[in-house]
Amino acid sequence: MTRFFWLGEDAAAASNQGGYIDAWHKWSLPGVHCPTCGATWSDVGHEYPCVDLSHLPERALFEQARPEPFSEFTRLRELVRPLAPPHATLPPGTGFGPLTGKATGRFGPVAWVEQLLLLVHPDVLSRLQEEGVEGLVSCRTELTFRQKTPPTFLELQIEPRGRLHPDCIPPEVSPPCGTCGRHGFTRPEAPILDAASLPSGVDLFRIGNFATMVIGTERFMEAARRQKLDGITFKELPNR
């Protein structure tokens, strides 16, 4: 049986290296005012850096974060849907385009942005793929460095594929809103993965109903450790 691990940033390694990245994706869907549940919200973790909106005539509408009425949000979502992967759910706040911003200090072979986005050097990506890690998709970044010889980073497009099992979601949590899809609950103290939802042929993905959680297979974990990729922690999660 495949084992799955929750990935995080190794704070000690990051502190020793001293690097810092202040950046985010160039475009995003707005937040939404939902007429049914009454919530005003946007999500984090649904990020598609390889989706380029630069040729979209309405691209300026995706450059500023703000809430919109549900009807306008839906209109904007349909404008970008043909450009996104066919399985993408595209909730409010979904990000698109290259990571843009500033970076300072020293970095190891991998770097995290806000403990959410995972960046790797091109040679790291090649070595992971040579190790047999499947489904890695990388995208260029548009980071500016102060160094004369700055490092090159690629962002891994880590897409939501699996889900948390209902058994670890408190029973008092309301079901997802039938209009906007919001399912408001805090991260469980003891997450359990829904085995039936977990993808095959992909060794790195996010949890669809809690997309800030990045999950790697045992194959990814072992390859990362063989390559001495300091900067990533691994916590095994059960699935049922």
The count of DSSP E runs of length 2 or more, i.e. the number of strands, is 16
Rough outline? globular
Tell me the strand order in the biggest sheet: 13-14-15-1-16
Q: Spans with pLDDT under 50 lasting ≥5 residues? A: none
N- and C-termini, Cα separation: 11 Å
Largest sheet: 5 strands, mixed
> Given the structure, what is the number of helices?
4
Structural class based on helices, strands and sheet pairing: alpha/beta
Instruction: Round the mean pLDDT to the nearest integer and report it.
Output: 95
Radius of gyration: 18 Å
The succession of helices and strands, N to C, reads EHEEEEEHEEEHEEEEEEHE
Q: What is the share of helical residues?
A: 10-25%
State which percent range the strand residues make up: 25-35%
Oligomer: single chain
